C-alpha cells in the first residue's frame, strides 16, 4: 500500500491579484512587516504562524480555505 503525498501552498498571490491589493497595502492593513508578507506571498515558509494567517484572512475578508490549498498525489 502506497502512502499518498500532499503539498500545501498559500494562494496569497491569487487573492491579492483578485482583490487588486499590493503586498505593501496588505502589510499596512494587517500590521505585519512587508518581509513577512513577502515570504507568505512567495511560499518561502516551512511553518505558518496562525496569528499571521488570521490577520491576512481578516484583512482580505476570506476564509482559511481560500488562502491555503492542498494538492494530493498518490
Keywords:
single chain, 74 residues, alpha+beta, 434 Repressor (Amino-terminal Domain), 53% helix, 16% strand, elongated
Written overview of the protein:
The N and C termini lie close together (about 10 Å). The mean pLDDT is about 95. This protein has 5 helices and 2 strands; from the N terminus they run βαααααβ. Helix 2 (about 25-30) packs across helix 3 (about 35-40). The chain is an alpha+beta fold and about 70 residues long. It is elongated and about 45 Å long.
Helix content: 40-55%
CATH architecture assignment = Orthogonal Bundle
Order of helices and strands: EHHHHHE
Classify the fold: give the CATH topology: 434 Repressor (Amino-terminal Domain)
CATH superfamily: lambda repressor-like DNA-binding domains
Classified by CATH, the class is Mainly Alpha
DSSP summary, beta strand count: 2
User: Helix segment count?
Assistant: 5
In terms of per-residue confidence, which ranges show pLDDT below 50 for 5 or more consecutive residues? none
Structural class: alpha+beta
Task: Annotate the secondary structure layout.
Layout: E1 5-10, H1 12-19, H2 23-30, H3 34-41, H4 50-60, H5 64-67, E2 68-73
Antiparallel strand pairs: 1-2
Amino acid at each position: 500500500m502506497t502512502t499518498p503525498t500532499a503539498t500545501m501552498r498559500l494562494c496569497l498571490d491569487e487573492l491579492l491579484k483578485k482583490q487588486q491589493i499590493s503586498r505593501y497595502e496588505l502589510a499596512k492593513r494587517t500590521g505585519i512587516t512587508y518581509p513577512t508578507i513577502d515570504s507568505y506571498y512567495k511560499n518561502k515558509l516551512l511553518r505558518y504562524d496562525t496569528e499571521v494567517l488570521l490577520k491576512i484572512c481578516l484583512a482580505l475578508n476570506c476564509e482559511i480555505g481560500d488562502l491555503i490549498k492542498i494538492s494530493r498525489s498518490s
